[in-house]
Amino acid sequence: MLVGGRMEDDRWMIGLEYLIQAGFITDGADERDDGSLGTVLVAQLGLQLVGAVLVNVKDEQTAGLVAHDLAAQLTADGAAAARDQNHLVMQVFRVHFAQEEEGQLMVDVTDRVNNRPIDGASVSISYVGDPQDTLEQLTTDSNGMTEEIDLAAPPRSYSEYPLSDVQPYSEYNLIITAPGYEPTTISGSEIFSGELSIQPVRLNPVLPNASASVINIPANTLWGVFPPKIPEDEIKPVRSSGEIVLSRVVIPEYVVVHDGVPSDSSATDYYVRYADYIKNVASSEIYSTWPEATLRANITAIMSFTLNRVYTEWYRNKGYDFTITTSTAYDHKWVYGRNIFDSISRIVDEIFASYVSRPNVKQPILTQYCDGKRVSCPNAMSQWGSKALGDDGYSDIEILRYYYGSSAYINTAEEISGIPASYPGYELTIGSSGEKVRQLQEQLNTIANTYTSIPKVAVDGIYGEATQEAVRQFQKIFNLPQTGVVDYPTWYRISAIYVALTKIAELQ
Q1: Same structural domain for residues 309 and 374?
Q2: Which of 240, 304, 307, 443 has its CA 20 to 30 A from that of 282?
């Protein structure tokens, strides 16, 4: 059972009988037109407690979870209207009778000044609700990373439907210390059942009069309450005044993130690598447990929105010195120091140069969205609705077209800033040769100076077994599929790490 952020006593008994009245109500309206979950109601599930509820729990809060009226409002897109009633009923019982489940956590600790991994950092883990009870004590290796550990999490089914008053993830406190560095405490690192969470930590070297750093991670926007997006036109006008200053879509190396509303001059600005920004926002705004097509559609929408801000120089043309804000009323929810999820990270690595286009429109379209449960957004994407479409087998482009119209298509930026050499357009593997292989070998050797588990290789332009093994070790360290083949995600991750370590084009 979930108790104050922790799972307790999986040997609980419930004597429970429900009178279930399930039915479908439709009005024939298109959910895209009014954006509300009420347009096409998947099911109105009346759950009336008619038997005794006997629960062996440790506190009243947990008992309340079990006895709570589960008027579960499942996703109300037209695509979900075909949901089977029996499936709905089974999901309810899965929620009630589920045993304790687990997710995974790995902590990645680096030096804030030079981006180098910190060997021997200590990581203490506790429940948010019980910070004095240390659950795990971990130590980072030469790559600055801890082992993956299992931590208790609510049932995965909690994140599959918008059930009221049931938090779908558990939260943990982390205290990170290392000799010569200021300690850092992270409160609220999130764990979903069956998902690997990667918690990045950047430690500051000890300085006179410095204090310990405390990072509080707020709730996912699907769970917490945040200001709804103020609607905007999806295509910004091109004016002769030079409002749009870029001639083509470019993936920036960095975005400057303003941690507040645009008018808050006291808010901190952060320089964040573009791909890391997208991973952070996606981990903050959707659930990593959702279908892959749904994740891809939502991530593409986040990227297109962001690139519209970049392309149009939206805030700089208004006199501000940043790219985007952390206010959900204006932009996306980016959270300083939050954890990211491996399933989201891998997708971003694969498609980070993508965005949504329309015919004869040069700029990425401003792909706005809302949760579709608390907030409706006509002519924009419903996040819970996209989840239902993914369940129904829709592809990422089909989901995007469902909300943004049939003319929408996925485009790819031709230029990626801050990368020493572009991807060759084909995979590098055993037998490959030439200048691209030589560039790869040079970058790997530079990275191996810091990440010493990567073997150094001869810079000969020939992709042999030694290069393959170096690539495989790199993939292992940075949580990529360990194929030994340099594909698109691996090439750009190698380039990004190389740039970070050599400080090429680094913004101070």
Answers
A1: yes
A2: 443
